[in-house]
Write a structure and sequence with these properties.
Length: 580
Amino acid sequence: MSIQILSEEVASQIAAGEVVERPASVVKELIENALDAGADQITILIREAGKRLIEVVDNGAGIPAGELNLAVHRHATSKLKDAADLFRVSTLGFRGEALASIGSVSHLSLISRVQREDLGAGIKVEGGEITPPTQLGMPPGTTVRVEHLFYNVPARLKFLKTDRTEKRHINDVVSRYGLANPGVRFKLHHDDELVFQTSGSGDLREVISTIYGVEKGRKVIEVFSEDDVLKVTGFISPPGLTRSNRNEMLFFVNQRPVQDPALSKSLTQAYHTLLMKGRYPIASLFLELPPEKVDVNVHPTKAEVRFEDKGDIFRSLGRAARRALLAHTPVPEVGSLGGARLWGGPAPDHRDVQRRIDPTWEMAGETHQEGIFARGLESQQIPADIGTPILRLIGQVAATYLIAEGPDGLYLIDQHAAHERILFEKFMAAKNQNIPSQILLESVVVEFSPSSADLVNEFLPLLKKLGFELEDFGPGAYVIRAVPALLQGVSPVAMLKAAVEDLEVDETPLEKNIEEKIIARVCKRAAVKAGQILSPEESKQLMLDLEACQSPRTCPHGRPTMIHLSVDLLERKFGRTGPM
Ligand code: ADP
Ligand code: MG
């Protein structure tokens, strides 16, 4: 075959492959265009998770009738004139590709009116064919309708996730731009239902409250710092307010949402010693730096950027966050631990600090490996499937481990892991006859972000089966009426949030799988913590309950609940074996 230049249509479809991955990508491009046009009101209407319709209405500058055709033309943009402009891009768009790409994989209509004209004009694009402009009456601004997305790319359509997931991606995109632009009034509708709206008052904390709930909005800490590298503004969470994933750490570079693992890492490091392992802060941080110091043209969807002075930027960000955190919670710096520590885990003073700052703090999994066992006294791990021997309690060490004597030596039991196992098995045993719930004397209201609320709604029957009784309480909010009776004494909100976090991480959870995961998660939340002093009676009960378990040797996540130091091992270590 000889070399040929691709037709405009094929070239656009190839470009669309990069720019338009899913409905949320269309939403992103259209919002960016509206923002670039200076709109301060943007309304987004979605039908069938964006597969049927995505419509974005703005009150921005509009497109003159004579330029509508150009707008949907590939590499046509009003935002760049020459190559030099590429190095100081201050608009969100500049590649002139989005509308052409979207038009090549959907039925697109574009109507617009500039302020100075009395009428607007509209065109339609279908399969690369553009209809001539027609006049129509409308308020100033632009409306883009994208219907039947991917109608001509069945492969893309097939790879879309469930409606729930696609909606969640859309919600995330709109939330992000809402956070980045507190001065813009956003409204998002799914199938005629208003999912959320921001007021456009310019108050970021208010937007955070709208998107993440009033409680988080109240708790977040303001960051403000400016040095010769960078200006950083926005909000971060206090150490007690964390997530199990990085999804709520948002960064904006010159108002553009940016994904850069190095940025999340710099921020997480600023929390050094304040977060337990596997927990991440929440953040909406705005980095401002001269446009020529950052290259935005490295990624087709512009989600990644390249910084000129990387190291300086990350350090400056880390400092800004650290300063805000310390101003909020003065934390004594933990010096070097010095001297040998006999038992695993951080030094006690360090733990106290952690616990004071974050009551949910638990000993991080890795610290179990430290201490005497890792230092030469190899412990004996017992296969998980055999039961526990009858144990006699000796006491508790480091408010974390129970020590017991068994028929063959010493046993150290991790109280948290053991309790997790006990609760998990009780739950699983009760599961098939409907888990008993306990009605709360005082019902509690809990708020979710729109996408989490979607999940809660979808999984209501499962949550009910697990013993949670929830009642709708307006957008994003639920009243907790009852919780699983097995888990008395745990904050109902913490329990429910733990359950929902699991739904969030999974893209398309398997019913069976998810149920067990939720139970494991909730049990983790409900189990006694490391650092909690147990009375001898409580300790004994815990050991008895553990003995009754089917797999008492590991927690539901697979960590050991106990370590055995056999008499034999003790003898060897004390040099008692061999000729005396
Ligand atoms: P880019 O945003 O990279 O320039 P697009 O394909 O997204 O490319 O848009 C092409 C052009 O159409 C833009 O440069 C802009 O002039 C015009 N345009 C698109 N959407 C809007 C809008 N909502 N309001 C005003 N002008 C718009
Ligand atoms: Mg654009």
